[in-house]
Amino acid sequence: MKSSVIPKITTHVLQEMKLRQKKISMLTAYDYSMARIVDSAGIDVILVGDSAANVMAGHKTTLPITLNEMIYHASSVMRAVERALVVVDMPFGTYQGNSREALLSAIRIMKESNANAVKLEGGREILESIDRILSAGIPVMGHLGLTPQSINKFGTYVVRATQEDEAGKLVEDARLLAGAGCFALVLEKIPAVLAEKVTREINIPTIGIGAGSKVDGQVLVLHDMLGINHDFSPRFLRRYHNLYEEIKGSVEAYISDVKNLEFPNEREQY
Ligand code: KIV
């Protein structure tokens, strides 16, 4: 049973946190069981990221995941969460170049999953879509810097905005997104000094991933920080566990117990 006494994190709470210089914690989750653990630990924001395409479905990029699949993940998460603000990534192809389709996709996410907000990748080129989604009362989180849905344009996942012109464009895009009414902005894999500048210049919270410490909050992909993925080691990633080895060890122990007739024992049967 869900308790009604837990105060829910809202976009206004995040804004307050920026003003009071209290750091915002954010992690991804894609399913009920993990979302329950992450929420009960006290995370501020859960992102149902399209990184689900990688860590849940084994795709090489985030591009293949569909709107239906994102809604499935988001509704599973929403059944678990009591406190965190839940943001859902709009998948590739559901908002670029067509603001009406963007609105309909965002409405489907909100209606069918019961989530709290959506996230879109990009700056000025998707402003019309963002405007239209916001006008329906749906909170929008922006995402600049490394935008994995554009991997085919850039061809690499290296640090973004290291050159002056690209950095200037990013700052301008950040201003546009904040001015349009986005409630927060993810900054992925950009120089720390640039992330600091953006954080100072806009009045909405910035959430960094590979963007240094002078941002308003941090986000990591849950499977990366728990070490479930053992073949992804960017510099910005801090691993809090080595679950790949731990789970593998447990499965090996189970197999051995079964083969050697050590499971189940007398107490584990009826
Ligand atoms: O999809 C995702 O997990 C993300 C984070 C890396 C910010 O967009």
- CATH fold assignment of the largest domain: TIM Barrel
Query: CA-to-CA gap between the ends?
Result: 30 Å
* Rg computed from alpha carbons, rounded to a whole number of angstroms: 20 Å
Determine the mean pLDDT. Answer: 97
Uncertain ranges = none
Order of helices and strands: HEHEHHEHEHEHHEHEEHH
The helix content, as a percent range, equals 40-55%
In the CATH hierarchy, what is the superfamily of the largest domain? Answer: Phosphoenolpyruvate-binding domains
CATH hierarchy, class of the largest domain: Alpha Beta
Describe what you observe in this structure:
- The chain is of the alpha/beta class and 270 residues long.
- It has two domains: 11-239, TIM Barrel (Alpha-Beta Barrel); 243-270.
- The protein has helices at residues 11-19, 32-40, 52-55, 67-78, 99-113, 127-135, 151-154, 164-180, 192-201, 222-225, 243-259; strands spanning 24-28, 45-48, 85-89, 117-119, 140-145, 184-188, 206-209, 217-220.
- Strands 1-2-3-4-5-6-7-8 form an eight-stranded parallel β-barrel, surrounded by seven helices.
- Helix 9 links the parallel strand 6 (184-188) and strand 7 (206-209).
- The protein is globular and about 65 Å long.
- The two termini are 30 Å apart.
- The mean pLDDT is 97.
- Bound molecules: 3-methyl-2-oxobutanoic acid.
